[in-house]
């Protein structure tokens, strides 16, 4: 039976307890966190809103700038109209099931057809029909940057577990 590591001091226990509560609130309420202020290389709408937001913000598949093997993970091509940069590389340190959370968002916020069933999974339809905001996939990506950075800040501040034997 696997053992859960124990801390040796009560203060360390309470530090983990407090961090757990903060992380739970952060992760459960990820849609309410402030979107990370990325730099828009292309597609900055702060001065002039797009005439057709649904088309302007439509995402097919996000990808990193650059070419393999030198991908630029600080810059993401969101679609043909929008490229964002200024993504801190530390945001990729938060890993869920072996993959950075940001890469999960990039992989899932797209348009994809299931080969077996032919069902189309379209993040844009969800954004428009369910959330009511065509910018949702872009803002979600920005929010997950914030969540990733905050998560790693909390985790790195935890006390060391020491010798667990």
UniProtKB/TrEMBL annotation:
Q: Name one Pfam family in it.
A: Type_ISP_C
> Residue ranges of the Type ISP restriction-modification enzyme LLaBIII C-terminal specificity domain?
1-138
- InterPro entries named in the record: Type_ISP_LLaBIII_C
Its recorded name reads Type ISP restriction-modification enzyme LLaBIII C-terminal specificity domain-containing protein
Taxonomic lineage: Bacteria, Pseudomonadati, Pseudomonadota, Alphaproteobacteria, Rhodobacterales
